Amino acid sequence: xxxxxxxxxxxxxxxxxxxxxxxxxxxxxxxxxxxxxxxxxxxxxxxxxxxxxxxxxxxxxxxxxxxxxxxxxxxxxxxxxxxxxxxxxxxxxxxxxxxxxxxxxxxxxxxxxxxxxxxxxxxxxxxxxxxxxxxxxxxxxxxxxxxxxxxxxxxxxxxxxxxxxxxxxxxxxxxxxxxxxxxxxxxxxxxxxxxxxxxxxxxxxxxxxxxxxxxxxxxxxxxxxxxxxxxxxxxxxxxxxxxxxxxxxxxxxxxxxxxxxxxxxxxxxxxxxxxxxxxxxxxxxxxxxxxxxxxxxxxxxxxxxxxxxxxxxxxxxxxxxxxxxxxxxxxxxxxxxxxxxxxxxxxxxxxxxxxxxxxxxxxxxxxxxxxxxxxxxxxxxxxxxxxxxxxxxxxxxxxxxxxxxxxxxxxxxxxxxxxxxxxxxxxxxxxxxxxxxxxxxxxxxxxxxx
Amino acid sequence: xxxxxxxxxxxxxxxxxxxxxxxxxxxxxxxxxxxxxxxxxxxxxxxxxxxxxxxxxxxxxxxxxxxxxxxxxxxxxxxxxxxxxxxxxxxxxxxxxxxxxxxxxxxxxxxxxxxxxxxxxxxxxxxxxxxxxxxxxxxxxxxxxxxxxxxxxxxxxxxxxxxxxxxxxxxxxxxxxxxxxxxxxxxxxxxxxxxxxxxxxxxxxxxxxxxxxxxxxxxxxxxxxxxxxxxxxxxxxxxxxxxxxxxxxxxxxxxxxxxxxxxxxxxxxxxxxxxxxxxxxxxxxxxxxxxxxxxxxxxxxxxxxxxxxxxxxxxxxxxxxxxxxxxxxxxxxxxxxxxxxxxxxxxxxxxxxxxxxxxxxxxxxxxxxxxxxxxxxxxxxxxxxxxxxxxxxxxxxxxxxxxxxxxxxxxxxxxxxxxxxxxxxxxxxxxxxxxxxxxxxxxxxxxxxx
Lengths: 450, 450
Description:
Radius of gyration of chain A: 23 Å
Oligomer: homodimer
Largest sheet of chain A: 5 strands, parallel
Structural class of chain A: alpha/beta
Strand content of chain A: 25-35%
Helix content of chain A: 25-40%
């Protein structure tokens, strides 16, 4: 009899899991439950959707009809799963119980909204779904001033999009730098200065205290000062959505996310749960850099986990999800900023002494037109000389370089070994003869030798 | 007393060696001898110089005066070294003997010109020095049709530059594909088709038999057919310039280049030569992919070797030049093509059975405007599943990706391990959520499993 696969969640993790399950088993019966009205889009796309750079119809990759016709996957949108019974192996939605052989939980994350007054007012938004994006876009037609809560990458990308649309934009951030936690302050300050040049205003070290207004938002108060606005958008980070795992009594880790085996199965009081797999923002990962737990709430991680969960749900063969360095990249104004592994802040959280190396150069040979500034920073553990993280700011071509450094960090390469065992491709239109990545590691080696 | 360092050769290897020696020892006496009239330029720049995209004054990084004033390095241009006496430790030039404590030989390569008739005619050029470039540029003012001998990367870059200048360009190649040896035929054919669309003509499988004319070139004969032209340019590859090493009786390797130790010292009848170091196109390297000799006549390699030779010439500490994967990249028309490690052809030369994986995607999320095609091909050794090479064609952002795959190849990573231990940074304007590199390795793993 055909195996029954149920997926809860229609984001990158859930839909990748469903499609992978189909590709591995042409016979199985696959049903996806989602509260959302759209499926298989990238939340990372929403700032570009609001600005109109990308079309909503293109951001939503496929309609439910496509999945039904082309892949034999049933997608039930706007459908809330009421309960899961892992003993009876059923999922209940709309009062009806559906049985499964394998269940994939990919319920993602919830935007964290601080517990303050006024967050329920009209024109207060989060940025998570295409519906959120469309609502913001509609409201912007009659709005001039926007407060964005949170200076993470989504907050900053959104700030640029709204500024490009001619809005007055104020970003309010609790910490003393933009892109806190994953970027170092020197790199973050470079990006902040770039955004300030575009006319975006920043209010730093200021926790938001209240959202004010009668019917709709009129202002936001942070650190005792009040900032008038027509729209308020929370881009304050994402927490694992644990409603279903908690109801099932699954083990929750020290970072507030679901503990999983390398095969992406959850645990219940220390014992592996059979026939259930998880993927995406609700999963607690293992760090590839240091022994220990870490979060990796990235679209790229969701897709990778979704493929493994989907495979393992239908196959005897169990694929393994490895530890993560969590490389990230963002395009903010005219600059790309990318990072991997540990920042100074994360290293200090892990209790590691760090030595850094830095180099500034160009993305092309100095005599070839159009070259853009390229800043590379590399961090090593002082004790072992292992490369544990890196960050790049560049006008172009940051992504491949950070993936390169990610490999070095995941493989435990020392700075000295990196210099011996790395080469860079060169031609005048695409790099300097000695790539800035190499120069940064040379600087790191000099600093380690001191 | 200040140490005396002599460098022969003023290319990327020689000038990097001289500058590195200076940075390591502020006191030493450094003299560079060069036959050339310009110093420290990148031969890779010449196609862009001819087209006018880059200025000759910018391609030549520094004048001899700069080295004298700013770095205390004497550069004797247009000066031929007549002999070296490695027992007396002297170099003779212009009839005068100069003593050295350490000598660095960085005499580079010579463009290979086939031993046929007519290569001495006027308007027959090679592409090696800025002087060559300027001469070609001057002659092009009154020339319409050009034959380029050799479809390697320099030949193709030059073909595009000349086509952009409105010339009729015919490229004649002995092998059955462009970029022979280092690119696979499927990737090469993609680039050739792109150039043919630009109006560049190709004559394949046709060794050049004669260059014809009375005073200046009028036509070129290849494989029995004759192609009229106003200019003929040989871009037929580079051979190690071994005049000095041969005169000194140094050991020459099986690839016709100088055998060196990891510290970049030559051998004489099997014994390491003290106080002499070499760097650049005349050096035979060790392959990082297979045990065995290989050539790495790249600007990036020359700079890396120059720094090590310069360091070792003045320091007690001896740095090591590691085995090479020789990543390369070229910007040809609107496409970048890059490669690393072994191609199918080189793998077959080493006697390795190969399995390949390939994926086609975009450089950006499919809904983000401006994304360009990205083709990634990865080769693994069938027996060990080790990644041994890769090639990329992309409208943008090939360089960092090939450096990433270079790390994998140098570190002996298997295809399966790459999937577990690699992650890619993602944001819609700079990559797909699953990078095409990862998709290509997935395809490789599927093919290896069959």
